[in-house]
Specification:
- The complex is a heterodimer of chains A (214) and B (305).
- Chain A has one domain.
- Chain A has ten helices and no strands.
- In chain A, α3 runs parallel beside α10, α6 packs antiparallel against α9 and α7 packs across α8.
- Chain A is globular and about 80 Å long.
- Chain B is an alpha+beta fold and 305 residues long.
- Chain B has eight helices and 13 strands.
- In chain B, strands 1, 4, 5, 8, 9, 10, 12 and 13 form an eight-stranded mixed β-sheet that branches. Chain B has a five-stranded mixed β-sheet with strand order 3-2-11-6-7.
- In chain B, a hairpin with a 5-residue loop joins β2 and β3.
- About 7% of the residues of chain B have low confidence.
- Classes of the chains: A mainly alpha (214), B alpha+beta (305).
- At the A-B interface, α5 of A face loops of B.
Chain lengths: 214, 305
């Protein structure tokens, strides 16, 4: 039933609209001048938050396909990843435009010497090649195996994103700790799957080497 | 928890109708008499004389000053204190004056209010996070209280302590910094005429989220030095511990003077005045260099940040 819904023709457009909601809400609040006493800070936090959330949600797709027996969830993965990149770009644009007002020297200085900016920038940079190569033609051009290897960069982007959040917080680490814990689970799942596959392959190789009883 | 015997039998509970009408009575009585019956003095008017120390800059709207606060005892989001401090009991209130003084004592708020005539001081207020506001505070120079306290010659520093009541501040445990909140000033800083013992803003008593009923305002230092809801003032010989420098010593020092040239974590070169779109340059000592720079003659402010 659920599988049928997510395979339906409305599934992707609906997901697209859902992912757009945070941006729409932000725009609505901005238009109503309802962004609080420090609007730039509000926009920075909102876009940064949604970048991290969507990154984590993107990383949840693969485990969920197995755990919920919903292989069709794969249809959303690219869109979710691209939305993470989209909010990441908005976050960076907010910083460059609204916070620093294109003061290049200041921005480069920040990226160079402030660890939390450096690592946040790294996180976005790691996402960029993934966004570029997200099309079917790029998968073909790279070949499935190499494409998949490249897209493992999302693990490091997620890690950098969580560290960025953790480093910029003054003292109340609850939220970055929660995101960190979720990321840990999502990466641990992959490690677990990888180890299981490796063991399986190893066993098969060993059994192939063994003389077969006739 | 479930098995614990109730401390009071249910029969002794005041019927709801009775206490509701009692509240109505207190409500109208306080409206007539001009004071609140226990709990809070919020909203009560406070008159004050103008001060030559005021800036001519435009004060930040009351709404922003009272809805965008750092008061970690009530939560770490800017909007938390206004919401969580609503029922904070700031009345009755007393401040203990102790340490190296001729006679330690505990002063009630109404006694404190009588120490010196109230002035309105419109000060710039710069947060270490990179935003700033302009606030019409009401209070009198801290040195008036110090004179009254009559510290002994061994008093070299003044240490301040905030109220910490976990019952009223349940979110404090997530803040990630130790409580009760501690602050301190060197004696000459404390005696400086700009250092304000503050009881109100915008013509009324301090709203709870702004540090009711009594706080410090030291306009040439980052906002976190201006400790809120003070319960203890202690005169000491050695530099006292302060909360943020205990929590993150590499980032927050004892002095914490506003300084665009020293920026361990964020750039302090610029700031956003709430309400402005463009950032402005941050001034050394928050623009009060003329008055306070001499306090730090010969000191390396990079080391003593």
């Amino acid at each position: 039933m659920l599988n049928r819904i997510i395979s339906g023709r409305w599934a992707k457009p609906s997901m697209f609209l859902i992912c757009l909601l945070p941006a729409v809400a932000l725009g609505w609040r901005a238009w109503r001048q309802d962004l609080g006493a420090n609007p730039v800070e509000y926009i920075t936090h909102a876009t940064g938050d949604w970048t991290l959330r969507l990154l984590l949600i993107t990383l949840t797709v693969t485990p969920m396909r197995w755990l919920l027996h919903l292989p069709q969830l794969i249809r959303f993965r690219r869109m979710l990843g691209l939305f993470a990149f989209f909010y990441g770009c908005l976050h960076f644009l907010t910083y460059v435009w609204l916070d620093k007002f294109f003061d290049t020297r200041d921005i480069l200085g920040d990226i160079g010497k402030r660890p939390f900016v450096t690592i946040g920038f790294t996180s976005l940079m790691l996402m960029t090649p993934l966004a570029v190569t997200s099309t079917a033609s790029w998968i073909r051009r790279l070949g499935g195996r190499r494409w998949q290897l490249l897209h493992r960069l999302i693990y490091f982007s997620g890690l950098a994103g969580v560290i960025h959040f953790y480093w910029l917080i003054k003292s109340d680490i609850r939220l970055p700790a929660l995101y960190g814990a979720l990321l840990f689970l999502l990466l641990a799942y992959r490690l677990f799957v990888f180890a299981a596959k490796w063991r399986e392959r190893h066993r098969r190789r060993v059994s192939e080497l063994q003389p077969q009883p006739t | 928890m479930l098995l614990r015997r109730p401390e009071l039998p249910y029969s002794s509970v005041t019927p709801k109708g009775v206490y509701l009408s009692r509240r109505r009575f207190f409500g109208s009585a306080s409206a007539v008499l001009g004071f609140a019956a226990g709990g809070t003095l919020e909203g009560q008017k406070l008159s004050a004389a103008k001060s030559p120390f005021s800036t001519t800059e435009k004060p930040t709207p009351f709404q922003d000053v009272t809805s965008y606060n750092n008061f970690y005892e009530f939560g770490t989001a800017k909007s938390d204190p206004a919401r969580n401090a609503k029922r904070f009991r700031s009345d009755p209130w007393a401040v203990s004056i102790e340490g190296a003084v001729a006679k330690p004592r505990v002063l009630d708020l109404d006694v404190l209010l009588q120490i010196a005539p109230l002035e309105e001081r419109i000060y710039r207020h710069r947060c270490v996070e990179g935003w700033s506001i302009v606030v019409p505070w009401i209070g009198f120079p801290l040195n008036a209280l110090i004179k009254l306290a009559n510290p002994t010659s061994s008093a070299k520093y003044v240490a301040f302590q905030s109220l910490y009541d976990p019952k009223q501040m349940p979110d404090a445990r997530y803040a990630g910094i130790p409580f009760p909140y501690l602050e301190g000033l060197r004696m000459d800083e404390a005696l400086h005429p700009l250092s304000l013992l503050c009881f109100g803003l915008y013509g009324e008593v301090l709203p709870n989220q702004n540090g009711a009923p009594i706080r410090l305002v030291v306009p040439w230092k980052y906002g976190f030095k201006s400790i809120k809801s003070i319960t203890k003032i202690r005169f000491v010989e050695k530099q006292p511990p302060t909360t943020w420098s205990l929590a993150v010593p590499s980032v927050y020092g004892f002095y914490s003077n506003v300084n665009p040239e020293v920026d361990p974590l964020w750039s302090q070169a610029t700031e956003r005045r709430l309400g402005d779109f463009f950032k402005r340059k941050t001034l050394k000592f928050n623009g009060y260099a003329e008055q306070v720079a001499s306090l730090y003659g010969g000191m390396d402010l990079r080391k003593n940040f």
